[in-house]
Amino acid sequence: MLIWQHQRYKLSAITVLLNSLLIFKTVYGMSAQVFSPQQLSHLADIDFTVLTNAPWFMLGAFLLLNSIGLLFRARIAWVMSLVLLLTTLVFTVHYYSNLLLNIVFCSFSIILLLFQSRDFNRSSATAAGIVSIISFVILIIYSTYGSLYFGDGFSPKITDLSMAFYFAMVTMTTVGYGDILPVTETARLFTISMIIAGIAVFATSVSTIFGPFIRDGLSKLIQGKKHTMKRADHFIVCGTSAMATNTIIKLHQRGLAVTIITVRPSDEFEIIEQSLEGKFDIISGDSSDTAVLKQAGLEQCRAILALTDNDADNAFIVLSAKDLSANAKTVIIVNDSKNLSKIQRVQPDVLLSPQLFGSEVLARMLNGETMDNNDLAELLLNSAHGIPSKTNL
User: Where do transmembrane segments lie in this chain (predicted)?
Assistant: First the structure.
């Protein structure tokens, strides 16, 4: 069950990919056998007048690109896929209402993406940057050469590459000076496709590619240069949940070195960081990625604490840590006691179950039993039955 929860995002990527293939199949009027090795050699002979269906073809192309981004669990790919699928659904219902399979499968894909929204939470440059750069380049090429291809449908006619590039940029950025107007149905449809792409792809791609550089530059200008902590004999905390943030504060108050790994710091965590004068050592990335764990200094740390809100993610963090360093001390939290038996299989050094701990303490208090600090500590560390606790972290 844990493996399925951690890998189910791939189902969304596959459905988005199949949507793009359905679009290509319909646009080109080919059967599924077009992908055989014999016929692939004749693709150069395809009559590209089928690009009169350019808006729909464009949707298929960008759905194909975003299916790759979904494999990286990129949030930008999820947003763009959702927008493009909604556009595809409206476009298909309006112009190709007889394509029942396309309509039903597109609707299913939209519902699936909405259902798996939380699985796409990565915003790192590696995940989002790849999708954004590819989308940006392909969109520029498509819009420029598409404008030139349909040039006769505009007034005045688009006759050269520089004019086509100018119209593409003006349209995608939604500036629209009005000096070049589409006058035929085909040109109007193509212009609509560029506007949709400009909103769904162009703006998000530019902000993703250049946004971090601008933000980091301003941050360095205002805050000055930050020195990275020497990552040795420290604690690694994964996540910014309530348990994680409170643990970080308590460790920090005791003068202990802490490195935090998080996909995206929450607003609450940013407030805490500001209140402590930005002395946290933060790494943005996937806590279960061995490269990120190496960067965090796992092999020199005192312990790694998997404290995210997702039990499946916590389990994979511990597995990755043990795979990278067999001597790494691991602490894991179980948010839902129903997952306790599954989490036990990863064999962490310390397993905490706040639900079971709280219920046990409450039951003892109601029964009039006395408990000292040692009783509470032992009860907390043994809240998950059957797990030996190695407390010398």
Answer: 53-71, 76-93, 99-115, 127-151, 163-182, 189-214
